Amino acid sequence: IAKEVAKLLEMKAQLGGDEGKHKFVLKTPKGTRDYSPKQMAIRERVFNAIITCFKRHGAEVIDTPVFELKETLTGKYGEDSKLIYDLKDQGGELLSLRYDLTVPFARYLAMNKITNIKRYHIAKVYRRDNPAMTRGRYREFYQCDFDIAGQFDPMIPDAECLKIVHEILSDLQLGDFLVKVNDRRILDGMFAVCGVPDSKFRTICSSVDKLDKMPWEEVRSEMVGEKGLSPEAADRIGEYVQLHGGLDLIERLLQDPKLSQNKLAREGLGDMKLLFEYLTLFGITGKISFDLSLARGLDYYTGVIFEAVLLQQENDHVEEPASVGSVAGGGRYDGLVGMFDPKGRKVPCVGVSIGIERIFSILEQRVEASEEKIRTTETQVLVASAQKKLLEERLKLISELWDAGIKAEVLYKKNPKLLNQLQYCEDTGIPLVAIVGEQELKDGVVKLRVVATREEVNVRRESLVEEIRMRTSQ
Amino acid sequence: IAKEVAKLLEMKAQLGGDEGKHKFVLKTPKGTRDYSPKQMAIRERVFNAIITCFKRHGAEVIDTPVFELKETLTGKYGEDSKLIYDLKDQGGELLSLRYDLTVPFARYLAMNKITNIKRYHIAKVYRRDNPAMTRGRYREFYQCDFDIAGQFDPMIPDAECLKIVHEILSDLQLGDFLVKVNDRRILDGMFAVCGVPDSKFRTICSSVDKLDKMPWEEVRSEMVGEKGLSPEAADRIGEYVQLHGGLDLIERLLQDPKLSQNKLAREGLGDMKLLFEYLTLFGITGKISFDLSLARGLDYYTGVIFEAVLLQQENDHVEEPASVGSVAGGGRYDGLVGMFDPKGRKVPCVGVSIGIERIFSILEQRVEASEEKIRTTETQVLVASAQKKLLEERLKLISELWDAGIKAEVLYKKNPKLLNQLQYCEDTGIPLVAIVGEQELKDGVVKLRVVATREEVNVRRESLVEEIRMRTSQ
């Protein structure tokens, strides 16, 4: 028996070895995913809404490579730089995958000496972050960016960016949302008057940035404990960052005895007032909140910053906080292009980035829940036959239809059953079937069947294209 | 004086040092490029033509990540594997940028156990090749792939792929073209009857693949000199690879005393005959040539292979050969999905890949030559004012227009000159100007100016949207 077992084990090992030949890990890289045809159909809807809005605002479109010279990205993202994907050094230049579309845009402007452009760019960006795919956080994800570059009168382009966020989130019907607005100059002024040393501005700013995920007490202890801020300074910050409101709050802070003494804060508050006046003209202040706790992570912002969050629906009986996360963000970055220009010439820029993945997750869940049937093709007609030996006739007819611009399919079988052909239409949502048969060929007609009603009419072959067009035009 | 010079030199050195801070190499990585708005406009035209065709043939669309697990790409590309871009090992999985869309498609099918799909995929792929950017050869470039996967009756999907190539190249009006067709089984059969040892099939095949760039004599000496093939075998191959034609040639080779003895060749020729019968039904044999010199580089093809080349125009007085290079290619790869399946289950596939970059280069040059003016935005109307202090009124009006879905722009100046506003329309091709002024506001009208004719009419504010729509509908 022992001998037999040994033999069997040996055989098993051999089989294992053979299987090993095919043993691929069948997956996409961590934090990435494929898009199925159904997901693509939803994705295209979202893109269409966004692109339509960007074009409505007169934007051109550009594209840049997926990777940049490594040094192009260096020193632009502060602490987040560790999340950049580098390419292997295979000889030649050192390259990194783009981390956002803003830095490549600034590089593009400086390289082509463009001082004035309104453009959008929709493309994938890459971050070696901890993925949370169910909440729409991926390592490869789309950004949809709209930016206005150029020397203009204050706050007009900034207001347009907020109008765009408002239009897109309204169009997509994602439920209630709120756009928080702040200004880096107000934050810096606030840090100054609260007694934060200059050298700690950035790190205290990134603590403030965590207020959407942590309670104030935790943020305060990070400031005091980890970052060595005095408890008094932290408490003073604590009073400010709880404030949010509209024009009234801006007016109040302009009168604030401490803040109003600070030049940066005064400039920021003055521009914020102007911004809110323009937003009033646009009729969108109802969903905009001036919020002193908004800080945003990225290093390159210099003025207005903003972030849009979706609010929990009342009928969403979930035990989560009221905000389900950021779906758009942006701000002003007047220094970034100058970092690339050999002479440091600045091009002021302001822009918005729509985070498509979270929006997409929400819409995908909604489609799943509603059991709405989404077509993944646009085929108007299936060319079919009821009898055998008519493949040639089917191919001749479908070729005529394709050449006339009709979207048509045929089953790749010599003699498919009519039932299978009709079933294919049911499954894929094809509305019409063009049936060729011996008799129809003799009579110079094609039998056109409406899948939904099972109605059948004979159509003269020369009128078929027109008839299909008529019956499938919305 | 010497002292002064020293001082000046020191100052210069200091300035140089400061400049150094901004000294970035301002470029895109080797073999890549940005797309300007004008280039994007041309690119979108080409994509639209291609997508329209793919949808006409009932294809769904998918997307996959830009990188794959390195092992997913291993062993799929033969000698070309050295051109794959690897990502740096930053901990975690080893990744590579995709080299084409075919291998990710096969991985997608195996991973999701899909045995039946017709899909297209348009995305960038990456090859560390020697770039020749003026001829449209890049390291980052688009592929537009259409593939049919599934067990079907022979040659029906294969014929559809060729029909698609024919439709797209005709639609794009790139001038005369030719689609060369061959079959890997015919090649292998030919190698066998010519006396090529089994072990040399692949390497001799890649020599044959060079026949579109080298004369036969050079290819022959590579076969005999570098690859150690006997001169007799090479000469026998030489006789075959000069042959090209249509159904007549297929018939002749089916009678060929040597080839007809080889099972693989017989199968290939039989299918080729069937393919040409279907292509005849599609009415496209005029631009299709059965060409025994076509080999294609990639390892994974198992049956029909094809490649479309643009032919030099007669009026193109250039001293180049008649073919300006491949713009589409494809073939049948019945084994690739099985390489990913744990049990080796095969899913037969056939597909076509349109090489957009060369097509795009040609169209770009054509646009440059024709001085055709390409609009890069779709803006219908500029909201303008003739007098000062009307920014608020302009913003109110443009907000109304945006909310009604009108594509509108406004200059980001408090008090822009009317002339500058009209000039902006001329420059960017905006057809209409909506002018607000004190009098118009009192009268409840907006002055609508047609840029091309300078005609001006007063339109009641409540009719403005309708009037703009009417005047800008094609």
From TrEMBL, chains A, B:
Gene3D superfamilies: Anticodon-binding domain, Bira Bifunctional Protein, Domain 2. The gene is Hars_0. GO terms for molecular function: ATP binding; histidine-tRNA ligase activity; identical protein binding; RNA binding. HAMAP family: His_tRNA_synth. Keywords: Aminoacyl-tRNA synthetase, ATP-binding, Ligase, Nucleotide-binding, Protein biosynthesis. GO terms for cellular component: cytosol; mitochondrion. This is histidine--tRNA ligase. Belongs to the class-II aminoacyl-tRNA synthetase family. It comes from the Eukaryota. L-histidine binds at residues 100-102, 127, 143, 147, 296, 300-301. InterPro entries: aa-tRNA-synth_II, aa-tRNA-synth_II/BPL/LPL, Anticodon-bd, Anticodon-bd_dom_sf, His-tRNA-ligase, HisRS-like_core, HisRS/HisZ, HisRS_anticodon. CDD domains: HisRS-like_core (cd00773), HisRS_anticodon (cd00859). It comes from Psophia crepitans. Residues 31-363 form the Aminoacyl-transfer RNA synthetases class-II family profile domain.
